[in-house]
Structure formats: C-alpha cells, structure tokens
Amino acid sequence: MKIFHTADWHLGKIVQGVSMTRDQQFVLEQFIEEIRKEKPDVIIIAGDLYDRSVPPTDAIQLLNKTLKEILVDEKTPILAIAGNHDSATRLNFGSEFMKASGLHIVGHLEQNIDPVIMHDEYGEVHFYLVPFAEPSIVRAVFDDQSVTTHEAAMAKIIEQIKQTMDCTKRNIIIGHAFITKDGMPEPNTSDSERKLTIGGTECISSALFEPFCYTALGHLHQAHFVANEKIQYAGSPLKYSESEVTHKKGFLIVDLNEDGAVAIEKRMLAPVRDMRVVTGMLEDILQHKVNDDYVFVKLQDEHYVKGAAELVRTVYPNALHIERTVVYEQLEQHATTMNRVQMDDSELFELFYTEITGKPLSDEIKEIYTDVLEQLIENEREKQEVL
C-alpha cells in the first residue's frame, strides 16, 4: 500500500503580519500533482489543517478546494485528524456522511476507536485515527481520574485500541502529539508551534507505539523519525518561522509491504519563495541583488541607522523582521551581569521595549518616557505633600 503522509498545513497562517495562504496554495497544488503522478492508495493528514480554530474564509476555501481535488478528481481517500490548532467541532461536522465520499476525518475523541479499514493486494490495513485531546478530555471520555499527563492520556487511548485490535492485520495509528524517544523533554523543532501544556510535561514515549506497523504523526514541523523509522513526523509543507529556515519541507511517501514493514521516501515541495536569514552590515546588504524571499534580517551595525527597515526593503521587499544583533547581544550581556531587580526604571523599560518590539529604544521614545516618568514622580511627590 502506498501512503502519502502529510501534516501541519496550518491554513490561514500569518507570519509577521504576512498571510501565507497563496504560498500554501502553491505547495498544495504541487502535492496534488504528486498524487496524480504517484497514485497513492490513501492520504494521511495528521492534524493542524488550520492554523486557528476560527480560520479566515480564504483558508476554508483552500481546504475545500484541495480536498475536493483529492477526493473527487483523483478519487483518493483521505484520513485526517484534528490537531491542537484546529477546532475539533468544526472538523468533526459532517464527518459521518463524508465517509461515503472517502473523507474520514475525526475531530473529537470517542471512547470506541474503531479502525478505518483499507485494502490492498495483501489484504486489510487498519488505520486508527486519534485526534489531539488534552488529558482532561481523555480523563472525561474514559472516566479515568488517573490521566493527568499527555503520556498517560496516550497510554489510555492505546490501551483502549489494543482491546479490540486485530494483531493479524497491519495496524497504523495517526496522531498529533509531542513524541520523544524516552518520553523525556526535547527541544521543539519550531518556534511557530505552540506548547501543548503549561507547567507540566507534554512529551510522550515512543515505546507506546510499538504495536503499530507505522505511526503517522503531526505537531512538530521538522520531518524526522523518533526511535525508529516506523514512527515518523511528516513536518509542515512550508516554513513558518525563523527557527524553520534550515528545514527541508515536503511530505512522506510510505510504502507498506505484505509483512507490515515500511519504506519511507521524503518528497520535497518547492515554495513560491524561500524563507531564510540574512546577516550583515546594512551597507553590504544594500549591495545584494533584489530578492523576493521571505527574510529575517540581522543587521550587524553597531550604531542605530535611521530608516534601516525602509532601506533593507528596497532589496528585500518581503523582509519579515529586521533587527540589530548588537542590541540583543548588549541586552543579553547586561541582563546576565545585572539582576533585573537592580535595574532602575529606565533600564527596565529599555529592556522591556526591546524584548517586546525587537527594536532598540530610539532617542525620541526614550525622551518621551523620561518626561512621563518625571511627571509621574512629580505627581507622586505632590500627593505625599498633601498627605
């Protein structure tokens, strides 16, 4: 059986104020062309079809168009689940009657997790669709108060699956979670993917997925396997943050043989424009050829240059973010050598402003802040005198 494994489309994504919808349409058209060429038996979309629970209209239209071309035009079934960015209810709507057209999409976790059964020349392949679900949801669905972590939640779900799973068949699970080799914390592969939990661990041990021939995952944006090649993240089809500029984006072609062994091929997708980092002195950057890539510009000039952003965009019109690296280095050194408690009001404000805006505090704003602060101090003194 030939399977296309993709995930984390994040339709409707906005990066630094720039909509990615046209860029997403460009790579999805390539994806559909690959479907026409390779004729896969099934498409897996492992969560985060949308970037937020209430997506913009153009994102909804793009998903509708893409699914229609895959299902109706190419007659290729789709297995999809909700990710942590999706609205489970939105994706779940109409899922029962859409099965007849080959679209199997699961938004809500249910107690009975029945497999979607596909066939190839060797027999049945059972696919278990597990949408993203917080531990509190899993705890309520299975009425098990011991489920307090993401790992315990996934263990409970797999325990439920194993009760009825036919081990004589080839079994595949589709999930959206943070899987690591030993369930221990590891760095995320992208700054654009939000954490699944606050104040606790979101990591799940790969050992839980041993019963399955293949584990098709979404959530982490860099394609990679965990522990062994049977457990794979497809990654996102586009770069969505500065932390992803070195990623190679695409999707996975999974060939499942008669014995349940898998052969994996990474197929690349070419973006309409690349996303990368440009570093250097402003004077040198202005000598570059005009380029429409999405770039994060790191200026190495020691002194503030008025109108630097406008100048950079004469060369890189799609510059997403521009910063002076010297400012960040100075702030980092200052913050590590001096406790913030010891900083005065002006120093704290300058640090806060730079951390929030990514820009150095200009002399003009510094002067305004100083005037306001002095006025507040004067008002406070007058109050004390009255008392």
TrEMBL record:
InterPro entries: Calcineurin-like_PHP, DNA_Repair-Maintenance_Comp, Metallo-depent_PP-like, Mre11_N, SbcD, SbcD_C. SUPFAM superfamilies: Metallo-dependent phosphatases (SSF56300). Residues 272-355 form the Nuclease SbcCD subunit D C-terminal domain. Residues 1-93 form the Calcineurin-like phosphoesterase domain. It holds the Pfam family Metallophos. GO terms for molecular function: exonuclease activity. Keywords: DNA recombination, DNA replication, Endonuclease, Exonuclease, Hydrolase, Nuclease. It comes from the Bacteria. Heterodimer of SbcC and SbcD. Belongs to the SbcD family. SbcCD cleaves DNA hairpin structures. These structures can inhibit DNA replication and are intermediates in certain DNA recombination reactions. The complex acts as a 3'->5' double strand exonuclease that can open hairpins. It also has a 5' single-strand endonuclease activity. PANTHER family: COMPONENT OF ATP-DEPENDENT DSDNA EXONUCLEASE (PTHR30337), NUCLEASE SBCCD SUBUNIT D (PTHR30337:SF0). This is Nuclease SbcCD subunit D. It comes from Solibacillus kalamii. The lineage of its organism: Bacteria, Bacillati, Bacillota, Bacilli, Bacillales.
